[in-house]
User: Fold this.
Amino acid sequence: MIRMRGLAGLLVGVLLLAAAGPALAQAPGRESSMRGGGRGDGELWLMIRAATLTPEQQTRVRAILSAHRTSARPLVEQLQQAQQELGTKLLAPGQVQAADLQPQLQRISQLRDQLAQDSAAAALEVRAVLTPEQLARVAQTKDRLKQLREEMRQLMQPARP
Assistant:
């Protein structure tokens, strides 16, 4: 009984992950207006938004993001496919062991690592476009957001008697 609950929990988790995968796997700068749309590009979006780019910088940043979007697109598609294949394996008839899932899980992990590397490279390229004053403004904005998140977390905690 406990084993079935564990398997059911795993199945639900993986299905949720598979369903959310396309949203989580978006490439950096996927939206044309230079807004970050997916996981991992929050820092990049913060840099772009808080820096108040000049028109020339905006052009350079758009070119950087476009190049990275183009290189990341096949990885995103492969990740989505790998997640779908994992979901298919989990729903296949018969017994499924953890070892049966390992190749798919390793492939998903590898693709996510590649996307993270690409995202970091894009962030470094965008960072190189910014002036020291813009970088300072970005750092201040990041610190303020961290403060706000902490305040929100404290507000959401239940009151203690």
User: Anything to note?
Assistant: Helices lie at 2-24, 42-51, 55-91, 98-129, 132-156. Residues 22-131 form one domain.
